[in-house]
Amino acid sequence: MILMIRFRKSAVVTAASACTVLAAALVSIAPSASAQVWRVTVSAGTSVGLGSSQYGSGCAYAVTVEGRPGDAAWFYDTGAFGTFSPQTVTIGSDGRASTSWTPQVSGWHRIYADSYYGAAATDSFQVGTGINLGSACVVV
């Protein structure tokens, strides 16, 4: 009887150890859950802000996303209306991709870039009324 109790105790300890090792192995090979798009930036380019904003409606701005090479990322503007050309990009081997963004209305905007593995966003910022001069934009 004592021998059977020791055998059961030993079997339980061995099974628990095996489960622990198996769980650790699965965790180490599991894909990362971190975001694969981690930064979105907007360049004011040649805009001249006469008021409190450096971005103007009707003027185009370069938006850059940084993320995992080869991933697709798509852009959207929340809070106010803006368009992107192109709407979807593939992140290059350098980890970056760019699009052109044109805010259509003045007001608060926030740009998101989304991928199948995560998303990133800019801070909210104010867009003023833009006067598009072709090579530059005057923001009032």
Would you write up a description of this structure?
The structure is a single chain. This protein is an alpha+beta fold. The chain contains 1 helix and 12 strands; from the N terminus they run αββββββββββββ. A hairpin with a 2-residue loop joins strand 8 and strand 9. The longest helix has 28 residues.
Main attributes of the structure:
140 residues; five-stranded antiparallel beta sheet
How far is the first residue's CA from the last residue's CA? 91 Å
Biggest beta sheet attributes: 5 strands, antiparallel
Q: What is the radius of gyration?
A: 26 Å
Order of helices and strands: HEEEEEEEEEEEE
For this entry, what is the oligomeric state of its chains?
single chain
The best one-word shape is elongated
Low-confidence stretches: 11-34
Mean pLDDT: 81
Q: Which structural class is indicated by helix and strand composition? A: alpha+beta
Distinct helical segment count: 1
How much strand?
Answer: 35-45%
Number of strands: 12
Q: Percentage of helical residues?
A: 10-25%
Topology:
Blueprint lengths: L1 H28 L7 E7 L3 E3 L11 E7 L4 E7 L3 E4 L2 E3 L5 E8 L3 E9 L2 E4 L3 E3 L2 E3 L4 E3 L1
Parallel strand pairs: 2-12
Antiparallel strand pairs: 1-3, 3-7, 4-6, 4-8, 5-7, 8-9, 8-10, 11-12
Short description:
With 140 residues, the chain is α+β, with helices and mostly antiparallel strands. The chain has 1 helix and 12 strands; from the N terminus they run αββββββββββββ. Strand 11 and strand 12 form a beta hairpin.
